[in-house]
Design brief:
CATH class of the largest domain: Alpha Beta
InterPro entries: ANTAR, CheY-like_superfamily, GAF, GAF-like_dom_sf, GAF_ANTAR, WH-like_DNA-bd_sf
Strand content: 5-15%
Number of domains: 2
CATH topology of the largest domain: Beta-Lactamase
Largest sheet: 5 strands, antiparallel
Pfam family, one: ANTAR
Oligomer: single chain
Protein name: GAF and ANTAR domain-containing protein
CATH superfamily of the largest domain: Transcription factor LuxR-like, autoinducer-binding domain
Order of helices and strands: HHEEHHEHEEHHH
Number of helices: 8
CATH architecture of the largest domain: 2-Layer Sandwich
Radius of gyration: 26 Å
Distance between the termini: 50 Å
Strand order of the largest sheet: 2-1-5-4-3
Structural class: alpha+beta
Shape: elongated
Number of strands: 5
Keywords: Kinase, Transcription, Transcription regulation, Transferase
Helix content: 55-70%
């Protein structure tokens, strides 16, 4: 999985079902171990994010109630819910993207924690709050992840109870987000490297197909390499199909012993 991520423990918190003064050492170690195991056991970014959403909801809510979790990622001027533990959480996040404003977008962009005590009386995002209230949700806690330049993210925790997130829950969520940020950074970095490798692989494959197709056209038309490439380009333009697709079709016909099309330019 590449370099190991070391999570540094933050301060202790006293909240039911969470880190307490009496169990801080054991609790912190347990949380850190879960995060490290998550990084080491998942094979790609999507799997990591899905598991992170489940772990986030469970860790912050304890065993008191069901908390819905969505993870918002802002990258290349686009917002998306990249992971969630329920379809409702995803829908609530996506409502914000439709309105182009809301607590999780603010938390991610401004890198600060946002708490809505009760959507029924929330005035900062009135349209979004009214829409969310229609689903029976009453409060939200959005804590930002720190993932570096070029991207922003936030953990969004929804509750059906008003004033569900007390100061202890907020403090724990902020600590949790700081610790989980390191794993998220690694997952995004791995996804970037994987995407680059896939792009290089596709480029090499396309180049191979084009080279093979140029050779075939040269043999068929008894022409030079430049002339054969020009013939392929004209065929690409005439059919409004990418050159690599034309080349792949020619290579497939020959390798599959299918009748080869004679390109006469």
């Amino acid at each position: 999985m590449g370099e190991l991520v070391s999570f540094e423990p933050d301060e202790e918190f006293d909240a039911p079902g969470r880190l307490t003064a009496q169990t801080a050492g054991t609790g912190e170690r347990s949380l850190l171990e879960e995060l490290q195991d998550l990084v080491l056991s998942t094979t790609d970014m999507q799997e990591f994010l899905n598991e992170l959403a489940v772990l986030s909801a469970r860790s912050v809510s304890g065993h008191e109630e069901t908390v819905l979790c969505g993870i918002t990622l802002l990258r290349r001027r686009r917002a998306a819910t990249v992971a969630y533990n329920s379809e409702t959480a995803k829908s609530m996040d996506e409502l914000q993207y439709a309105f182009k404003e809301g607590p999780c977008l603010t938390a991610a962009k401004e890198q600060r924690t946002i708490v809505v005590e009760d959507f029924a009386s929330e005035s900062r995002w009135p349209e979004y709050s009214e829409a969310v209230s229609g689903y029976g949700l009453r409060s939200i806690l959005s804590a930002p992840f720190t993932i570096g330049a070029g991207a922003h993210a936030a953990m969004n925790l929804y509750s059906y109870r008003p004033s569900s997130f007390r100061s202890e829950e907020v403090a724990f969520a902020e600590s949790y987000a700081r610790q989980a940020s390191k794993g998220l950074q690694l997952a995004l970095r791995m996804a970037h490297y994987s995407e680059e490798a896939d792009n290089r692989s596709r480029a090499m494959e396309s180049r191979t197909h084009i080279d093979v197709a140029v050779g075939i056209v040269m043999a068929q038309n008894r022409c030079s390499q430049d002339e054969a490439f020009a013939i392929l380009q004209r065929a690409s333009n005439a059919r409004n199909v990418k050159l690599r697709v034309i080349a792949a079709e020619i290579a497939q016909r020959v390798s599959g012993a299918l009748p080869a099309t004679h390109f006469d330019g």
